[in-house]
C-alpha cells in the first residue's frame, strides 16, 4: 500500500504541475475563459503510452508521470496505480447511494500491425482496456466515429466529439483513449429557493450578475490569510471512499494565476490546505456554473518535459510485435472535459485520446465564504488523494 500511496502522491504532483501550466497567463490554453480538465484521465492515457514506449522515450514519460523515478520499478508502480484506480477509486458507487462513476480505456491499433502480446496483456490486465484492430488506412473517419460514440456512451452524453474531423486519417496507426464520468450529489444539498443573483467580479475589473447558491449550515472551511478553502463533500456509497469538491478562493480578486502557480510549486500545498472539521459560518455563496472545455495538450506536456514522444526520435517499439518503422510518433493528444455544478451536486466527465502517426472587495465577516471573484476548484477522492478534475472559473455566466 505504501508504494501505491507514493504513486498517488506523484500523480497528484503531476496533476498540480499540469494545473499551473494550464492556468498560466503565459499559455493561451485557457486564458480569459472558464476551464476544466482531468489530470487523472491524462495521467492514465500517458501511462498507457509509457507502457508501449522504450528507451529514452519511456524514461522521459516516467520522469514526468512518476516525479523523476526511472526504470522498471517506476513503470511497474505506474501500472499498479492504474490498476488500483480502475478497480477501486473509480468503481461505480451508485447502487449503494454513492456517486455514479464510469471509467474506461481503449486501444485501437491499425490491422496492418499486430499488437505486442506483452503490451496487450498489460493494457487489458492493469488498465482494463478494450483493444481493437481497426482499418485506419481505408476507414479512418469510421474509426473516429467509433471512438466518439464510445466516449459519448461512457460520459453519459456529456462529451460528444473527442476526435474532430481530420484528427485521425490514413496515416494514423494507433489511438489510446481514456474516458471517465462522475455524478455526485452533495451530502448537504443547497436549497434552490435560496439561490439569488449577485455580483461576480471579473479579472478585468468589471462585474456580472450571476446566480449564487447559498447556505448558513456549518461547513468544512478554513482560512489561511490570503486564501480560503471550502470543502463540499458528496454523498458516500457503501464503501470508505469520500469524494469532495474543493473551492480555493484567493483573497485578491485577481489572485487566481498566482494561486495556481503556488499550488504546483509547493507539492504539499493541497494537503496542507484541506479543511478537516466543520465550523459555523456566517454565510456561504457559491455560483452555479457549467463548463465544457477542450484543448490539444501537446505543447502543455512538452513544457513539462515530455518531448520525445512527439519527435522523430520517439521510441514506440513496445506497442507492436513487428519492427516499428522509423517516424512513428505521437501527433496529438486531445482532451475534453465537462462539469456542471448546481444545488443538487456535480456532473463531470472527461476524455483523452493519444493519436500516433507515421510521419473592489467588500468588507466581510471572517467566517463568510463569498465566492464572488475568480477561483480554482478540484474534485478528488479524499481517502486516497486521487485528483479527478481541476478547473477555474473566471466568469460563471460563460457556458
From TrEMBL:
Q: CDD domains under this entry?
A: serpinP_plants (cd02043)
Taxonomically, the superkingdom here is Eukaryota
One GO cellular component from the entry? extracellular space
InterPro entries on file: Serpin_dom, Serpin_fam, Serpin_sf, Serpin_sf_1, Serpin_sf_2
Q: Does the keyword Signal apply?
A: yes
Instruction: Pinpoint the Serpin domain residues.
Output: 26-396
The leader peptide range reads 1-19
Q: Which Pfam families match?
A: Serpin (PF00079)
Keywords for this protein: Signal
Which GO molecular function annotation, any one, does this entry have? serine-type endopeptidase inhibitor activity
Q: Which PANTHER family match?
A: GH10112P-RELATED, SERINE PROTEASE INHIBITOR, SERPIN
**Which family, according to the similarity comment?**
Belongs to the serpin family.
Designated name of the protein: Serpin domain-containing protein
Naturally occurring in which organism (per UniProt): Sorghum bicolor
Amino acid at each position: 500500500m505504501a508504494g501505491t500511496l507514493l504513486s498517488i502522491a506523484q500523480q497528484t504532483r503531476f496533476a498540480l504541475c499540469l494545473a499551473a501550466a494550464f492556468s498560466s497567463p503565459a499559455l493561451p490554453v485557457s486564458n480569459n475563459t472558464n476551464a476544466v480538465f482531468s489530470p487523472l484521465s491524462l495521467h492514465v492515457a500517458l501511462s498507457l503510452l509509457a507502457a508501449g514506449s522504450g528507451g529514452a522515450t519511456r524514461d522521459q514519460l516516467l520522469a514526468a508521470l512518476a516525479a523523476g523515478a526511472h526504470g522498471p520499478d517506476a513503470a511497474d508502480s505506474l501500472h499498479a496505480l492504474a490498476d488500483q484506480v480502475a478497480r477501486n477509486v473509480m468503481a461505480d458507487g451508485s447502487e449503494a447511494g454513492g456517486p455514479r462513476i464510469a471509467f474506461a480505456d481503449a486501444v485501437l491499433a491499425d490491422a496492418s500491425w499486430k499488437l505486442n502480446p506483452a503490451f496487450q496483456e498489460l493494457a487489458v490486465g492493469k488498465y482494463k482496456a478494450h483493444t481493437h484492430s481497426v482499418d485506419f488506412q481505408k476507414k479512418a473517419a469510421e474509426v473516429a466515429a467509433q471512438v466518439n460514440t464510445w466516449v459519448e456512451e461512457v460520459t453519459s452524453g456529456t462529451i460528444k466529439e473527442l476526435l474532430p474531423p481530420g484528427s485521425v486519417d490514413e496515416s494514423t496507426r494507433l489511438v489510446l483513449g481514456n474516458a471517465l464520468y462522475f455524478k455526485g450529489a452533495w451530502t448537504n444539498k443547497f436549497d434552490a429557493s435560496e439561490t439569488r443573483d449577485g455580483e461576480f467580479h471579473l479579472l478585468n475589473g468589471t462585474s456580472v450578475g450571476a446566480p449564487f447558491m447559498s447556505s448558513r449550515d456549518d461547513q468544512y472551511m478554513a482560512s489561511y490569510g490570503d486564501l480560503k478553502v471550502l470543502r463540499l463533500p458528496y454523498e458516500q456509497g457503501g464503501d470508505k471512499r469520500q469524494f469532495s469538491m474543493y473551492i480555493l478562493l484567493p483573497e485578491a480578486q485577481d489572485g487566481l494565476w498566482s494561486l495556481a502557480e503556488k499550488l504546483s510549486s509547493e507539492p504539499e500545498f493541497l494537503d496542507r490546505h484541506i479543511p478537516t472539521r466543520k465550523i459555523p459560518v456566517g454565510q456561504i455563496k457559491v455560483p452555479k456554473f457549467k463548463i465544457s472545455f477542450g484543448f490539444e495538450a501537446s505543447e502543455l506536456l512538452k513544457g513539462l518535459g515530455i518531448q520525445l514522444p512527439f519527435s522523430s526520435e520517439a521510441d514506440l517499439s513496445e506497442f507492436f510485435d513487428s519492427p516499428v518503422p522509423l517516424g512513428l510518433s505521437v501527433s496529438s493528444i486531445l482532451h475534453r472535459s465537462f462539469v456542471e455544478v448546481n444545488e443538487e451536486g456535480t456532473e463531470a466527465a472527461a476524455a483523452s485520446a493519444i493519436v500516433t502517426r507515421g510521419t473592489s472587495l467588500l468588507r466581510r465577516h471572517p467566517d463568510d465564504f463569498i465566492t464572488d471573484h475568480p477561483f480554482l476548484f478540484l474534485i478528488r477522492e479524499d481517502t486516497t488523494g486521487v485528483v479527478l478534475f481541476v478547473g477555474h472559473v473566471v466568469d460563471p455566466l460563460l457556458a
